[in-house]
Amino acid sequence: MFSPALTILLNLCLAALTLAAPLANDKLTTMGNAEQMGAGGGVLGFAVLILDILVWIEVIKSTRPPSHKLLWCVLVFLLPVVGPILYYVFSDRAKHNPEAGGYEQIA
């Protein structure tokens, strides 16, 4: 299927990757410092995730052109905290609401 030279090259690359992998220490410390490594989002991280999903749903359901939808979705994906704020402040949400009446006024 592959030429012998390509097979040897792939085997050498695989061997180089296995030798370059770090060796395991005697004790595992991968879960002890999750907050220091940025993986301990907790309640605030969950709230940001829910807000991002709500923005994505609203953008996808809007009547914007596909390029504008893609731009807003990428912005919210790359800036998960600031992106929804920028969307709610700078996008013309009432104009692109798929319902004919737009958003209801708060009395």
UniProtKB/TrEMBL annotation:
<keyword id="KW-0812">Transmembrane</keyword>
<feature type="transmembrane region" description="Helical">
    <location>
        <begin position="36"/>
        <end position="57"/>
    </location>
</feature>
<feature type="signal peptide">
    <location>
        <begin position="1"/>
        <end position="20"/>
    </location>
</feature>
<dbReference type="Pfam" id="PF13396">
    <property type="entry name" value="PLDc_N"/>
</dbReference>
<dbReference type="InterPro" id="IPR027379">
    <property type="entry name" value="CLS_N"/>
</dbReference>
<keyword id="KW-1133">Transmembrane helix</keyword>
<feature type="domain" description="Cardiolipin synthase N-terminal">
    <location>
        <begin position="50"/>
        <end position="90"/>
    </location>
</feature>
<protein>
    <recommendedName>
        <fullName>Cardiolipin synthase N-terminal domain-containing protein</fullName>
    </recommendedName>
</protein>
<keyword id="KW-1003">Cell membrane</keyword>
<dbReference type="GO" id="GO:0005886">
    <property type="term" value="C:plasma membrane"/>
</dbReference>
<feature type="transmembrane region" description="Helical">
    <location>
        <begin position="69"/>
        <end position="90"/>
    </location>
</feature>
<keyword id="KW-0732">Signal</keyword>
<keyword id="KW-0472">Membrane</keyword>
